[in-house]
Amino acid sequence: MTMLDDRAKLLLKALVERYIADGQPVGSRTLSRATGIELSPATIRNVMSDLEELGLIASPHTSAGRIPTALGYRLFVDTMLTAERGHMQTPTLAPDQPQKVIANAAHLLSDLSHFVGVVIAPRRSSVFRHIEFLRLSDRRLLVIIVSPEGDVQNRVLFTETDYSASQLVEASNYLNHHFAGMAIEQVREKLLAEVESLRGEIATLMQAAVQVSTEALTQAQDNVVVSGERNLLSVSDFSSDMGNLRRAFDLFEQKAQLVRLLDSSAQAEGVRIYIGGESKIVPMEELSVVSAPYEVDGLVVGTLGVIGPTRMAYDRMIQIVDITSKLVSNALSHK
Prior knowledge:
By secondary structure, this protein is α+β, with helices and mostly antiparallel strands. 47% of the residues lie in helices and 18% in strands. It has three domains: 6-79, Orthogonal Bundle (Arc Repressor Mutant, subunit A); 98-123 and 222-332, GAF domain (Beta-Lactamase); 130-221, Enolase-like, domain 1 (2-Layer Sandwich), CATH 3.30.390. It is elongated and about 90 Å long.
């Protein structure tokens, strides 16, 4: 796809930049002026036709001009974008309680971008203070998990074995005696190492309990802060199409989807960009996501980003997200 000659690249770059700036389909005459090179209208039309065949631009039926497609934006971002530095006044984010920092960061992202700011709160270590089993019926147990902060999570566990009351006490005593105060991830590893020395059915019960405890403690922490949804009302790409707007607002309501999307960014270093439905998690051609992980004391603990229309100033969004991730990292770290 990048096998475009220099002239085609120059015209595509000019077209994308002009469309991002104006929001109007771009015609041959505008392109000629924007590039500043001497090309006949016929030559420009031929190149535009080639770009359209490659799926990089499209022609809205109401206009003779062209607009970029998601594929065109992707090529622009990957090969033609230079993220400008120094044009933006560096904002501030004061150290505070984690939830306050996260809320302030989401507001900062939406204020600077004029789109939607999203931050996943830091994941605390999944530590448990106490675990208990309660028999509900044959092969159905209630697992009660208490965190060091006193939060109580209950999960129903279906088992293949029908455990007696004494077996349930034996399993909870073993877990509480050996593992209380440890992160649930450590407990899982240690159980695997000790499984040989434990009676089979008790080991199976404890491993199942650790699994539901992991899910319970993780779900209790997955906290997504979204700010600035109303900004999309003033974006012409959305305000003119209620269907698009409704789908976008549905996405912000379904916070689990946002967690999955931004979680995938936590695996990447630096800023990551999803354009127009590239991510299966945001199946909307009209939305793009610019995201980055943030750290506490050098360890990646969460992700933040900006969600807006595909027609966004990507260089500025990269800068906003990059700076905010550094500000959050500094505000949350214990120096």
